[in-house]
Amino acid sequence: MMKAERGAIRSWILHGCDRVEGAVRVPGDKSISHRSLSLGAMAHGLTEVHGFLRSQDCLATLEALRALGTEIVESPDGRIRIAGKGPEALREPGAVLDAGNSGTTLRLLAGLLAARPFFSVLSGDASLRNRPMRRVVEPLTAMGATLLGRSAGQYPPLAVQGRELSGITWDSPVASAQVKSAILLAALQARGATRVTEPSPSRDHTERMLQAFGVTVAREGTTVSVTGPARLQGTTVSVPGDLSSAAFFLVAAAARPGAELLIREVGVNPTRGGLLGILEAMGAAVAQERGRNEAGEPVADVRVRGGQLRGTTVGGELIPHLLDEIPALAVAAALADGETVISGAAELRVKEVDRLSALAGELVKLGVRLTEEPDGLHIQGGAQLKGAVVSSRGDHRMAMSLAIAGLFADGQTQVQDVGCVETSFPGFARLLAEVAPGCGIHEVADAG
Ligand code: S3P
What we know:
The strands form six sheets. This protein has a four-stranded mixed β-sheet, with helices on one face.
């Protein structure tokens, strides 16, 4: 299989097939990989990262930290070593920091840089330059930094003039781990206590990893507090498999009666695990085996046995716990009996693409009956999917979800514009070919 490059326009061609089975490992968790680099760069002493996700998004964070003067060495076995010298050792970059397609890179670095006494500019690709940034600009400004962006601070490029910061009490209007983490990275370098409250809990990898780096983090309900300045001590981070990457395979097996798949060593942090419970509620059997804890993160092998799924209702506080999995969940819903209603998911409109509009526009081409709501989708399950030409619209999770839909469709499906998958899941097509060999997935250059 030829390797896709970001920017190159390539398609996957695959066929419907009736067998999904085996045991796989998915690449490392994207959120945890980003955080291991940023916290390692802020820490004193060596941080060693095992299982790092070598995807474009995480490499954007790695290169940005190098541009800020951090020594980061990748060994041939995939281990990453970060020679942390504390935040004071970071230096003004000589060029714009390129976050590529990665909101996590840009928002977390904005927080880290808000306290550094120099000027930096953060930018990214066309998708990232249209994603909302006022949600981090406002709290970081309230702490004392100066941040400027297009449309009164809403869009990148973001210019950051770091300053001495003071702790704040902040009520975030969105449940967003990127916002919470940006504030916490600034707060570690600020004077005094910072408290961040969210409307409902978002993923808590930053809080857990900070504790592994020796920082005291207080948590009460949906409020997280740290007191600065805090000293981080370098440590070893083991990155588990990414549940958001496993999601595509989980759905491929869950929606097929008789299928059985084992996904080894996946992160099963409850603030990320919403899909597991929903697939069970829809009629699949999902079991966690060999559960353990690694550097504060729960990890397990996840075994899924497929069944005839039933439609369900997903909304409220569960949404932040499966937000990135909604494209895959929409495919499961299309294959279920009855209707699935997804609500409270307007945040999907400000991801790499507007995922609600993208799902509605692309799934319909495969014969799915669904309607788009301002904050969700109503999906009528049960229709036999028909192979078609569909597009990722440049969004990695769309590309992979559409490929999974293609496994269940009559005839051939072409998923266009799949180079974006390199942002989170290099090797996805190869792994899909392993568990569903009958689908014959292969990559071609897009015509035209
Ligand atoms: C992420 C947080 C989520 C998620 C994104 C990764 C993170 O975004 O969708 O893929 O690593 O903190 P929000 O913080 O915008 O909800």
